Amino acid sequence: MLDVLHELEPVVAENLERHLSIVKPWDPHAYVPWSRGRDFALLGGEDWKPEDSPLDPVAKAALTVNLLTEDNLPSYHREIATRFGRDGAWGTWVGQWTAEEGRHSIALRDYLVVTRGVDPSKLEALRMEHTIAGYDSGDKSPLEALAYVSFQELATRVSHRNTGRASGCPIADQLLARIAADENLHMVFYRNLMAAALDIAPDAAMQAIRDEVVGFVMPGAGMTDFQENAILIAKAGIYDLRIHHDEVLQPILRFWRIFDRDDFGATGEQARTELAQFLDLVDERARYYEEKAAARQ
User: Fold this and answer.
1) Are 240 and 72 in contact (CB under 8 A)?
2) What is the pTM of this model?
3) Helix 73-84 / helix 88-114 crossing angle, nearest 10 deg
4) How far apart are CA 119 and CA 53, in angstroms?
5) d(C-alpha 149, C-alpha 160), whole Å
6) Rounded to 5 degrees, what angle do the CA atoms 106, 236, 71 make?
7) Residue 35: is it exposed, middle or buried by C-beta count within 10 angstroms (0-12/13-18/19+)?
8) 121, 50 in Cβ contact below 8 A?
9) Which of 29, 146, 200, 296 is the most exposed place for a label (fewest CB within 10 A)?
C-alpha cells in the first residue's frame, strides 16, 4: 500500500497546486456579529438563559453537532498525518488542510457564543468530553482513508449548507455557506486522488470504496446525544438517508465511473456487485422513511 502512496505523490502535488490556486482565504471573525455580544456573569454581565437563544431546537442541535464534529480536528490531523505521512506533497497537504479546517470551529463557536445561540457552558463541557475522547478510524489502509474522506467531506459540506439554510439566521447561513465551500474543495482533492488510485490499483481501490460505503459513519457519531440529534436533523431534512444516498454517495461514485469501468478483476467485480446491492438497500430504506413521513402529514 505504500507503493500506492508513492505512485499517488505526483497526483497529490498536482491537486495541491490546483487547490492553492483557487482556495480563497477568509477571516473567521468577519462572520461574527460582535455587536450582539455581551458579558457573562464572571465579568458583571448575565449568564446564558434559554430565552436568550434566537434558534429553534433543530438549529441548536444541528449547529452543536456540526461544531463538535469540527472540534475534533486534532484527532483528524493525527489520522491523516499517520495515513499519508508528513513529507513531500502529502505532508504539505496535511498541513494546509488542517489550517483551513481550523477556521471552522473558531467561527462557529464565536457565532454561537456571541449570539447566545446555545448554552456556552454546556457547549464547553461537550467540547471537552468529545475532544478528550478523540476520533479513531481504526486500522484503515491509506486507500480506505481516501475513500472515507471523499464521502465524509461531501457529507459535511451538505450538512453545513443545509444547516445554514435551516437556521433562520442570515448570518449563520452566510457563515455555513463559507465553511461548506472549504469542505467542497477538500472533497474534490480527495475525490481526485481516489480516482487516480482506481487507475493505479483498481481492485484494491474498489474494495476500499465498498468497505467505506457499507461501513460509513460520520466522525461525530460518538458524541453525547448524537443519535437523538441525528433524528431531529433527519426529520428537518438537513441530512437524512435520502440525502446521503442521492447527494453524497451517488455523485462521487458517478465521478469515479464505478459502474462503467471494465478494469476490475474478480475481487473488484465482487466488491462492485456488493456495493450495488448495498446501494439498493439504502435506496429502499430511504424510500421507506419517506413513505412514513408522508403518512404522518
Assistant:
1) no
2) 0.94
3) 170
4) 8
5) 16
6) 20
7) exposed
8) no
9) 296
Burial of 63 (0-12, 13-18, 19+ CB in 10 A): buried
The b/e string for 133-168 (b: 16+ C-beta within 10 A; e otherwise) is eebebeebebbbbbbbbbbbbbbbbbbbbbbbebbe
- Grid cell locating 2: 505504500
Contact assessment for residue 187 and residue 153, using Cβ atoms and an 8 Å cutoff: yes
Q: Do the Cβ atoms of 47 and 129 come closer than 8 Å?
A: no
pLDDT by residue for the chain (297 residues), tens only, comes to 558 888 999 999 999 999 999 999 999 999 999 999 999 999 999 999 999 999 999 999 999 999 999 999 999 999 999 989 888 999 999 999 999 999 999 999 999 999 999 999 999 999 999 999 999 888 899 999 999 999 999 999 999 999 999 999 999 999 999 999 999 999 999 999 999 999 999 999 999 999 999 999 998 888 988 999 999 999 999 999 999 999 999 999 999 999 999 999 999 999 999 999 999 999 999 999 898 888 877
Nearest in space to 5 (alpha carbons), one of 168, 247, 198, 197: 197
Contacts of 67 (CB under 8 A, 6+ apart): 105, 108, 109, 112, 123, 127
